[in-house]
Amino acid sequence: MDITILRNVQEHNDATAEDVRRLLAARGICMINVMGGAGCGKTTLLERLIPRLAPLRCAVLEGDITTVHDAERIAGIGAPVTQLQTQGSCHLDAWLVHEGLNTLPLDEVDVLFVENVGNLVCPAEFDIGEHARLAVLSVMEGDDKPAKYPLLFTRATAVTLSKCDLVEHTDFDLSRAEKFIRVVNTDAQIIHTGKGLPGDDRLVEWIRRQRDAVAAAGASKRPAGARNS
């Protein structure tokens, strides 16, 4: 008798993601999955935020189909960085992120950013072991994107509307974009960011809170007297 067996094709990815999450939490490291379309400003945002997060120590895993251009930019601000090349895949998976951890000085990291492949669809489907998801939507992309690509925004912990310093040069309606986000996600913090705008400070504080929560949870699970390794 033939027996049909259906299994979740992401089962192995999800198990690896849990391993990544536990490994980082045990060290008090908060991993933030940064997702958004190509050109939305993810790398530029990290270049601005990482220096402002000091004394928190930050590292980056840069995801791209090919090239090391974004990794070179992050290295230019002095942060440890590893380029993760998918060689054609439209997203990062937990296995590749797990491999990337082996290349970083984890004993010297408090916050790990993973800049996912520039794509509004595929990256949102895969758990990579993150503790928080930051969705990035620039005012150059169109205010209807949360309605057209809802999964990315549904699963986001926070959403930044980026390049808001340029909004007057576009037809992007900030309130319309926020309305579409709220249709699919009532809890995510929405932060307007852009060069010279106060939203950058709000995002820095949001990141600090995410790291504090991970560090506190990890500390509660360690034996008395134990230290981060």
Explain what you see:
- This protein is an alpha/beta fold and 229 residues long.
- 37% of the residues lie in helices and 17% in strands.
- It is globular.
- It starts with 10 loop residues before the first helix and ends in an 8-residue tail after the last helix.
- 41% of the residues are buried.
- Mean pLDDT is 92; it is low at 224-229.
Q: What are the key terms here?
A:
229 residues; alpha/beta; seven-stranded parallel beta sheet; 8 helices; 37% helix; 17% strand; globular; disordered C terminus
How many extended strands?
7
Give helix % range.
25-40%
- How would you state the average pLDDT, rounded? 92
In angstroms, what is the radius of gyration? 18 Å
Strand order in the sheet with the most strands: 3-2-4-1-5-6-7
Strand count, sense and barrel status of the largest sheet are: 7 strands, parallel
Number of helices: 8
Distance between the termini: 53 Å
Approximately how much beta-strand content do the residues carry? 15-25%
Q: What's the SSE pattern? A: HEHEHEHEEHHEHEH
Uncertain stretches: 224-229
Summing up helix and strand content along with how strands pair, one would put the structural category as alpha/beta
Which term fits the overall shape?
globular
Task: Write a concise synopsis of the structure shown.
By secondary structure, this protein is α/β, with parallel strands linked by helices.
What is the element layout, followed by pairings?
Layout: H1 11-26, E1 30-36, H2 42-52, E2 58-64, H3 69-75, E3 81-85, H4 94-101, E4 111-115, E5 132-138, H5 145-148, H6 150-154, E6 158-162, H7 174-184, E7 189-192, H8 199-221
Parallel strand pairs: 1-4, 1-5, 2-3, 2-4, 5-6, 6-7
Helix pairs in contact: 1-4
